[in-house]
Amino acid sequence: MNQKLLWCDLETTGLSLQDQCLEVGLVVTAPNLDVLDVACYQLYFTGLLDPLVLEMHTKNGLLKQCANTSLFTSDADVELADFVKKNWPEGSDRPMLAGRNVGTFDKPRLERWFPLVHALCHYRVFDMTTVGTYEEVKYPKGPVLHRSLPDIYSDLLELRHRLTKGGSVIA
Q1: Considering only CA atoms, which of 16, 21, 39, 38 is closest in space to residue 29?
Q2: Would you say residue 49 has pLDDT above 80?
Q3: Please, what is the end-to-end C-alpha distance for the chain in angstroms?
Q4: Cut 0.90: pTM above it
């Protein structure tokens, strides 16, 4: 890889495109995958949740953090767009989104809930799910906590392991 990546993970109230975002995490990495910058926001939410989502995000502490914030999705969109612009100044290449299921889950939700951020991103994505399903061998990775930053860091750990083990993303 010869460019910075914009790692993205969204935590939501469900799997539907209409379900609300609870947390958005963005991590900028250098071509060697060193972390350059981080942004993470918990978003205001009050409403009913599916029992599985309620249990998951109560256990990991996300719902408590969402109850203690007054940041709305539209405000987070402006702040995150500024974050992206800071890391990819005008005239530079657009950031490529990276992450697990980023092409099928996160990117459509960015388009729906964070249109300013979505408009700044490249159409291509680097999806760790594709990398992971290429072969049956399981690489060590941390637990999926359903929190934006820990899940992104877990993907970075897995990718670093793959690159050091075989010298390429796909061993």
Answers
A1: 38
A2: yes
A3: 15
A4: no
Which of 46, 36, 39 is closest to 69 using CA atoms?
46
pLDDT of 166 > 90? The answer is no
Task: Tell me which DSSP letter residue 140 carries.
Answer: P
Contact criterion met (CB below 8 Å) for 83 and 39: yes
Q: Percentage of residues in the chain with pLDDT exceeding 70?
A: 87
| Chain-centroid distance, C-alpha 147 | 9
pLDDT in tens, 52-80: 999 999 999 999 999 999 999 999 999 99
Q: Which two tokens stand for residue 90?
A: 């005008």
Q: Please check whether residue 84 is in contact with residue 6, taking contact to mean a CB–CB distance below 8 angstroms.
A: yes
Round to whole Å and give the CA distance between 26 and 135.
27
Cα separation, 61 vs 48, whole angstroms = 17
